[in-house]
Amino acid sequence: MITNEMAIKAIEASEKKAKELGQNVTTAVVDEYGELIALSRMDDALKVSPNFASAKALTSASFGMPSGDLAGFAVDGKPYFGLNTAFAGKFMLIAGGIPVKNGGKVVGAVGVGGSLDVSQDAECAKAAAQILEK
User: Fold this and answer.
1) Residue 83 and residue 121: Cα distance in Å, rounded?
2) What is the distance between the alpha carbons of residues 35 and 98, in angstroms, rounded to a whole number?
3) Which among 41, 50, 76, 108 is most buried, taking Cβ atoms within 10 Å?
4) For residues 29-37, average pLDDT
5) 67-91 pLDDT tens trace
6) Would you say 95 and 121 are in contact if contact means Cβ atoms under 8 Å apart?
7) This prediction's pTM
8) Facing residues of 36 across strands?
């Protein structure tokens, strides 16, 4: 289980990494069902970044894999074709969502949005996930 206290520490790790990268991002931490535990939008982060972060976290928690890794399964002829438009567009198939596992079981996820280079979102999310998997 991810507590609010743990989520806040994870967000701090994400924001520290974002500052190192010269970015302003939003970080969302969700439980295993994709329900929000905590969210923080850094000053000057893109106004839409909370939506990106939350969608990436939901996607990773729901599928148990990084949000960007699902893109290859969502093309024509693959099992998740159309996933990005299903469920009113709630799922995000770009990098920045990382599942959090404990004993091989998904217990939540972190989503980060706001960088123009989504690999930087993923770096921030990984920093946060490492805190939650300790």
Assistant:
1) 21
2) 15
3) 108
4) 98
5) 999 988 888 898 888 888 888 889 9
6) yes
7) 0.94
8) 30
